[in-house]
Amino acid sequence: MNRSLGFSCLQNARQLGGYRTEDGRCVKENVLLRSGKLNCASAEEKNALDKIYHLQTVIDLRTKDERKAEPDPYILNSENIWIPVLNEDAYTDANLQEIAAFTKEYGDNPAAEAVAILQSGYDISIMYQQMLSDPYSMKQYAKFLRQLLLIHPGNSVLWHCSGGKDRAGTAAVLLLVALGADEQTILQDFDQSNHYYEKSIQQMRLDASRLTDDPVIIEKTGYFAGVNSEYMEKAMQWMKETYGSLHSYLTEALSINEAEIQMLKHLYTEILY
């Protein structure tokens, strides 16, 4: 099933509708939207979000600096909610401090930044686990899920970060867990970013090959332009080992209660006929 919104300017723009849940229900069509940074949207795409998708709320998961550099445009009849999932003022982990330094130095050269990070020895396979175990990020993802409870029936919500793949992808993972999708479905949706960024991934690896001869590093630089679903699978395994199940991660780590989970299911899934 094609879940693309059919946009050519707004990157990685798609919806979660049509996914089956383990209790025999189906995610409603065209109400749960995700994308990359919204300032890329054309006038026609912004109009479609209003007129076709009845967009009520945009949730921006980016940092303060990202919002300042590339602010979200106004979309008619919608509100913009800022829920930054990374605390840019408190890089407590040494690896995150190092990445922040690399970003500052190589910000205009993504391939050079990716190569430098990988050559430093940073283990990118734990990036999602770090985010899902960080108290600040956990609090923010809980706020994201609760914001979805405020969407009126018939309206849609769109959440985004910069590429719409890591922070926004993690948000989609947690939402699909709440809605009752199985792990295979969740990981397949997460991996779809690679389809939308296929050319960017190829270009990243080509640029990296001009900076290093290491085939492992060249391969891994592609994950900076796309995603590696194995890394998310590793994070989900950590969630299960630490909290007993993905569902328990929501209730214990994020303090999302059962009533809230049932309300999310009521709002965003429907019975299959």
Task: Spell out the helices and strands N to C.
Answer: EEEHEHEHHHHEHHHHHHHHE
Instruction: Name the poorly predicted regions.
Output: 101-106
Q: Please report the number of helical segments.
A: 14
Determine the N-to-C terminus distance.
18 Å
How much of the polypeptide forms β-strand, as a percent range?
5-15%
**What is the CATH architecture term?**
Alpha-Beta Complex
Give the rounded overall mean pLDDT: 92
| Counted beta strands | 7
Q: What is the radius of gyration computed over CA atoms, rounded to a whole number of angstroms?
A: 18 Å
Structural class: alpha/beta
State the domain count. Answer: 1
Class, according to the CATH hierarchy?
Alpha Beta
Q: Which sheet architecture does the biggest sheet show?
A: 5 strands, mixed
The 3D shape can be described as globular
- The proportion of residues forming helix, as a percent range, comes to 40-55%
Q: The CATH topology, please?
A: Protein-Tyrosine Phosphatase, Chain A
How are the strands of the biggest sheet laid out side by side?
1-3-6-4-5
CATH superfamily: Protein tyrosine phosphatase superfamily
